[in-house]
Write a structure and sequence with these properties.
Length: about 130
Amino acid sequence: MLRAALGILVGVLAGMIVAALGEAAGHAIFPPPRGVGFSNPAQASAAIARLHPGAFASVLVAWGCAAFAGGLTGAFIARRGAWPAYAVAATIFALAAWTMTMIAGHPWWMWIGAVAFIGGGGYLAGRFSKA
C-alpha cells in the first residue's frame, strides 16, 4: 500500500510539472494581458474574460497531458494496475476544478473540456499501464 501511495504522490507531482510546462507553452503562444497579477482574483477574472479561446484550449491540452503522464508515472511506480493512474487523474481534475472555481470567468465549455481531456488522459494512462 505504501508503494501505491508513493506512486500516486509522485504521479500527481509529475502531472503538475507537465501541466505547468504545458500552460507556460500556451502562455507563450497566447500571452495574458500585460500587468495582470494572477494572484489577485479580481484582476485574474477580468483578464480571463479577454483571453483568446486558444489560450483555454492550450490549458485543456496541458491538463490532459498532465493526467496521462502523471497517471503513467503513478501506475508504473505503484505496480498495482490501472487504479493509481485513475487516482492521479482524479486528483488533477480536482486541482483543475479548484483553479476554475477560484478564478471566475472561465467559459462553461472549459468545465466540459476539463472532464473530457483529464478523463481521457487518465483513461489512456490506465489502459497503457495494463499493457
